[in-house]
Amino acid sequence: MIELDNRTSLEVDETFLNSIAKTFSDKEIELIITSNEEIQEINKEYRGMDKDTDVLSFPFEDMPMSPLGSIVISSWHVQNKAKELGHTDKDELALLFIHGLLHLVGFDHEVDKGEMREEEARLIEEFNLPSSLIIRTQG
């Protein structure tokens, strides 16, 4: 289900991430783990924002046999946020993957009325992850 392109030394538990992805889709998901510099370039090119970020999502057109989309995650943000919040890189990567996955399936926290945060909270509890994603994205 996950097509992993890890361009860094960050360890990735594909089995765990696949179990999260299966809660929404059996479609293939491209997951790119990259440097802070590269995610900044991608953010600038595709979103017109010349700054780094933790996660980007690019949904594909919904057609039979098409992948669900691509998620790009900065390993630098994974490692730094995990250290800052006192949890593991594995947990932080899963939190960012959930956030990106929800964007792929149509959630948008910038315009919804809290539905994305509710779904994040449900998944965080289901997969026994730290609730820091919800806390740091409120407001």
Overall description:
By secondary structure, this protein is α/β, with parallel strands linked by helices. The chain has one domain (2-137): Collagenase (Catalytic Domain) (3-Layer(aba) Sandwich), CATH 3.40.390. The protein contains 6 helices and 4 strands. The protein has a 4-stranded mixed beta sheet with strand order 1-2-4-3, sandwiched between helices. Strand 1, helix 1 and strand 2 form a beta-alpha-beta unit. Helix 3 (75-85) packs across helix 4 and helix 4 packs across helix 5.
Per-chain topology:
Layout: E1 2-6, H1 14-21, E2 29-34, H2 36-47, E3 55-59, E4 69-74, H3 75-85, H4 89-104, H5 115-126, H6 132-137
Parallel strand pairs: 1-2, 2-4
Antiparallel strand pairs: 3-4
